[in-house]
Amino acid sequence: MLRGQIADIAVGSIFLFVGFASWSIAAMRRRARVRIFVWLGFWSAMYGAMRLSQSPAVIMASPRALQTFHVNTAIGYLIVVPALLAFLELAVGGLRVLIQVAAWIGFAIGITGILVFVVTSSSNALMPYNNLLAACVLLILMIVVAVPRLSSSYLVFNSRVLVAGTFGFAVEALYNNVARPMGFEPLPVLDHIGFAILLFSLAYVALQLVFANEHRLLAVESELEIAHKIQIEILPRGVPSTRELRMSATYRPMTAVAGDFYEFVPVDDARVGILVADVAGHGVPAALIASMIKVAMQAVTSCAHDPGAVLMGLNRVLSTQRPSQLISAAYLWLDTENRTARYSAAGHPPLLRWTHGQLDRIESNGFLLGMVPECVYPVATMDIHSGERFLLYTDGVIEVENGRGEFFGDSKLEDVVRDNQTRSPGELSEELLSQIDRWRSGSAPQQDDITLVVIDVA
Question: How far apart are CA 126 and CA 80, in angstroms?
């Protein structure tokens, strides 16, 4: 029995193996565009299983439940569906819609044909309709891949290999359909060769797509790495050295590049300005606007002692650029020689001030930057004393959510500040980040950019 079935068993096993190999590629290349390998895997595995199911030796060696299930009929009806879905991954525009419709029609014919077979035992009742659908779609695909203008409009990628594979399969299918009505029985090997040519031409194109996608991803990652380095370069390299101020700055972006920004404007060893800004959104667009703030800040350093004038200047510059994202900012001026502090903000979380054993929230807000070309920002003036502490931060600190959807919030932030009043600015920052990580349950991804500046009056 085996002697006359070796060819079918070998061919079926090879295509079944190719199907599993295609699924393995899809599993390993999850980042790339790999759904085409999933459908190619189904297509090849179904073809291989159909060939194996035609071998009596394989059927006899199969479990009894599989022997009673007519695999050949089910696969014969449904094999057109993964074939169409594989081509779908290469199609765009109207061709994509056409293939989607054809796939649904093929699925409906297949399910109906299987049900008819279960009820009537007729395995070929709807097979002519199935074959007609496959022939029509194949004809359309031949025209599209053969005409350069059509292929450039309706295929994401085309090559001579795909053209050759499509035409090779079409010639084999045409020969089979012409030879049988004329009384000639085509050689089974031609069927295998035609299918193999089409399958491997599609696999070649799929690999080209994956490699191209990988190159694009590597290019994007490289550009993001460069953008990250540039953004780090525009941030202060450290905290300024002053006589009576001890400072720490913490910057933790959510992604490679972020929309948070901070800047120190030291005038001398007794006076310094601190800016913290937060661009709504994340990624490259927010980072580009953050770099605009860096440039705009250079134009307002002459009025560093006046927080209202600093924010007005930044607002004026950013209004002319009309950024699409909202920008909040806060600016604190500290003068340890005259023992005064001045503060103003643009839609930013309040300044926290620890003084005389209590925590005050200083709010002095105007419009977000870039919204209104001419906007006056109110300024809060206060005396400063030894032992006081100031905190400037972005909303990424207080809007961290836990597993129940609860925010870290102002009260939690204030508790951490109150419980760590004897710690240095750097230690307080580390403790606060640790508390935030625990609140976020560690393994959960960071939800926003975090910037925190802590200043102690020594």
Answer: 13
Residues 6+ apart with CB under 8 A from 95: 140, 144, 154, 155
List, for residues 206-260, the tens digit of each pLDDT value.
888 878 777 887 777 777 777 777 777 778 888 888 888 999 999 988 877 778 8
105: Cα separation from own chain's centroid: 33
Which residue type occupies 449? Answer: D
CB 207 within 8 A of CB 34: no
Distance between CA atoms of 313 and 300, rounded to whole angstroms?
6
CATH architecture of 239-457: 4-Layer Sandwich (3.60)
- Supply the pTM of this predicted model: 0.63
Distance CA 451, CA 248 (A): 11
Structural contact between residues 277 and 234, judged by C-beta atoms closer than 8 angstroms: no
Q: What is the pLDDT of residues 279-327, one digit of tens each?
A: 887 777 777 888 888 888 888 888 999 999 999 999 888 887 766 678 8
Please say whether the dihedral angle defined by the alpha carbons of residues 314, 319, 321 and 325, taken in this order, is positive or negative. positive
Cα 129–Cα 72–Cα 65 angle in degrees, nearest 5: 135
Asked if 57 and 4 count as a contact pair (C-beta separation under 8 A), the reply is no
Query: Rounded CA gap, 328 and 393, in Å?
Result: 11
Those residues with Cβ within 8 angstroms of residue 430's Cβ, 6 or more apart along the chain or in another chain: none
